[in-house]
Design brief:
The complex is a heterotrimer of chains A (95), B (117) and C (158).
Chain A: H1 2-21, H2 33-46, H3 51-59, H4 61-81, H5 87-92
Helix pairs in contact in A: 2-3, 3-4
Chain B: H1 4-22, H2 26-47, H3 74-104
Chain C: H1 19-41, H2 50-68, H3 78-101, H4 124-149
Amino acid sequence: MRSLLVVLTILFLLVAFFLAFTEAPFANAPLSKIAQTYNEQTVAETSATNVIAAINFDWRAYDTLGESTILLTSATGAAALLRRYLHRRRETGLT
Amino acid sequence: MIRINLIGAILLFLLGLYGVMTNRNLVRMLLNLGVMESATYLFLIALGYRSNSTAPIFYEPTLVPGQTLVVDPITQALALTSIVIGVVTLAMALSIIVQIARHYRTLDVRHVRDLRD
Amino acid sequence: MQPRRIQKRQIETRVEMTVMVRMIIRSLIPIILVFGAYIITYGHLTPGGGFQGGMIIVGAVMSFYLAYGYNIMRRFEEDDLDLSEHIGALSYLLIGLIGLFAGVSFLSNILRGGAPGGLLSGGIILVLNFVVGFKVATGTLLVLLILLEVLQKGTPKQ
């Protein structure tokens, strides 16, 4: 019974995804206005030839600041959750 | 056919979803979740493709920004951010799985449901 | 007189890999580190950047763990890695505040200018690539070392 439910869910999602994504205009759609602006103005204004690095670090540098913060959160969270295994290191005296 | 990228990303997503629904080990469910995340990155990058266009890197002097056709760079920047978020999710989920394994003495997801102390 | 104790034969388990693997990894690690530094430095010209280069550096350091076992990873102090990551996060913020104090907006590109295609041309993109690469390398290394330490034998402190 449970495997039948799993297979039905997968088939339903397969049909739904196919109907949704293979009818949309995909490779012939024009670029959005913001993408055209990024492509044309990056080399002239920031003189960096990598448009994606310029998007991440110049046009949208504030989002990369948030991304640095979540990396900090992951290190602090992992250290906080696994703190009882970290005291072992100081007890064995090998550092 | 160009849309083979989209179809491949959808199939990879459904493969990962089947793995999450079927497995009983917690670590295997986490690995299949990683497969689903990779399918999402593939889908994002495949969405930005345009015909007869090249990558948005203008390092060669023959590529002029106004006249060369390039693909959409915004979806690629979004995929880059999503990869970092996926790494963070994986690290936190592994820490929680370590705590669950210590508390329940098992990694079977059916036994974690019991109200045991 | 005490009875002679029967010594249990200690079975030595080596955690290191064979000598060929160790030699190859020892030869390859400097190349991978230089490659990671190249990806970080040329992040504003060719594909790459801070995040990608930082992960390459972590891959090079973790291959030391694969070849030599966990004992070689005890040289990394977790407090130092934690401090380095916090320094990296704060310096991103301070570089942004420089733009605020100079009269323009937060995190604006003050050092722009230079020929496109040259190494010193990105402005603030070059500096932020270094900061983010340093932060990602030390932060990911810290998380991996914490997760590896769970597997070591010994009783944890209650």
